[in-house]
Specification:
By secondary structure, this protein is an alpha/beta fold. 41% of the residues lie in helices and 15% in strands. β3, α5 and β4 form a beta-alpha-beta unit.
Length: 393
């Protein structure tokens, strides 16, 4: 990812997004937000596609390849080391669909794994006669402890380790590089779920060491149009990977075989460089990370004070822009309750914020992006105690 200083005040950023100004958007981490400039580029591309579909789809593979080359600049890796996919889950499915797990082997996950990734790993294990082993990683474990817990669970039967770079529900950075060293020592491959990493981290691929596979969404923190993600593989492993959809590019080498996905609207991919370049030129990615971390810290303390709750313990290396605030006991004790509370907060306060749950403890997961201000979190803090008082449980 490129680096620069900010060239525009962050407080004015809301005007650069198409977000409803009547809603306070505090959940960028789930679905992102796309700059108006990138939306305009996507509309232009769709107009071109509808004007001459034959020419569009005839030229599309070469244009996707050009897009990969443009994104390689931001990802700090050659364009032939990664493919574009719809989202991180699609990348995980491509890896698990292409890898074969030895019968009786183990797939290692942590209990912070994203739900869809956990389900995909279990399906692949059942298909191949393998089994899934889940390692409990306490929320307050530091990087050394996390590595030790993962290493202790590895053995010669471990064939694949699937680990988050940035955990989704618990907003923590895991020591992927060290875990990879331990996994390779027992002969296991490593798949890194970096769904939240692009944008939050300056160079996420530099932090994974020699991990074999990595997936990351560009439509979250990097603000690309939705449906844009990256699947990275190392060396000869690239040629083992095939897209979830077999189309006319199936016989092509990686990553070209991913560039042909049939009659699908790929304008999100082609418009993605415009989103990344826009933020770099107008704000600066380094400035975003510094500013969002400061705002996230402030927001965490503001909401914890409002709820009279203790801030979750510092967990290893925190990531810019994401923080946890524990909810009072009894709120969001499971996934259904978390979803219900999220809807209740939205309806009562006009704020969109993530509500997560982990081992029976509910949390507000805070996201801070360019368009957020301290006033957004103060507004939520003022209303949240009354909102929780009559919230469903």
């Amino acid at each position: 990812m490129t680096h620069s200083t900010a060239t525009a005040p962050l407080s004015a950023a809301l005007d650069d997004f198409a977000l409803d100004p009547g809603v306070r958007h505090l959940n960028h981490g789930s679905f992102g937000a796309v700059p108006r400039a990138a939306l305009a580029e996507q509309r232009r591309l769709r107009h071109e596609m509808e004007g001459d579909p034959d020419r569009w789809f005839r030229d599309l593979p070469s244009r996707v390849a050009e897009t990969r080359a443009a994104l390689a600049h931001h990802m700090h890796t050659p364009a032939d080391t990664f493919a574009l996919v719809a989202n991180a889950s699609a990348g995980v499915s491509a890896v698990l669909g292409s890898e074969r797990l030895p019968t009786g082997s183990e797939v290692l996950l942590t209990d912070h794994a994203y739900g869809a990734v956990d389900m995909a790993a279990r399906r692949a294990a059942a298909r191949d006669g393998a089994r899934v082993r889940v390692v409990h990683v306490p929320l307050d474990a530091d990087s050394s402890a996390v590595t030790g817990l993962m290493a202790a669970a590895m053995n010669p039967a471990t064939s694949l380790v699937v680990v988050d770079q940035v955990t989704s529900a618990t907003a923590r950075l895991l020591p992927v590089r060290d875990i990879t060293v331990r996994a390779h020592a027992v002969g296991a491959r490593v798949l890194v779920d970096g769904a939240h990493a692009p944008g939050l981290l300056a160079d996420p691929l530099d932090l994974i060491g020699e991990a074999d596979y990595w997936v990351g969404n560009l439509h979250k923190w990097m603000c690309a149009p939705r449906g844009t993600a990256v699947l990275f593989a190392r060396g000869p492993l690239t040629q083992r990977l095939f897209p979830v959809i077999d189309s006319w590019g199936a016989a092509d080498p990686f990553p070209s075989r991913f560039d042909r996905q049939g009659t699908v609207d790929l304008t999100a991919w082609l418009a993605a460089p415009r989103a990344l370049d826009f933020i770099e030129e107008h704000y600066g990615w380094d400035a975003f990370r510094v500013g969002s971390q400061q705002l996230a810290d402030h927001a965490q303390q503001t909401l914890a004070d409002a709820l009279e709750t203790q801030i979750a313990p510092a967990t290893g290396d925190q990531v810019p822009a994401m923080r946890l605030v524990p909810l009072p006991a009894g709120h969001a004790a499971d996934q259904d309750a978390a979803h219900a509370l999220q809807r209740h907060i939205s309806a009562r306060t006009g704020c969109e914020i993530a509500v997560t749950t982990w081992h029976g403890q509910g949390f507000l997961r805070l996201s801070a992006h360019l368009y957020n201000t301290a006033a957004d979190y103060s507004h939520l803090a003022e209303q949240l105690p009354r909102c929780l008082a009559d919230a469903p449980r």
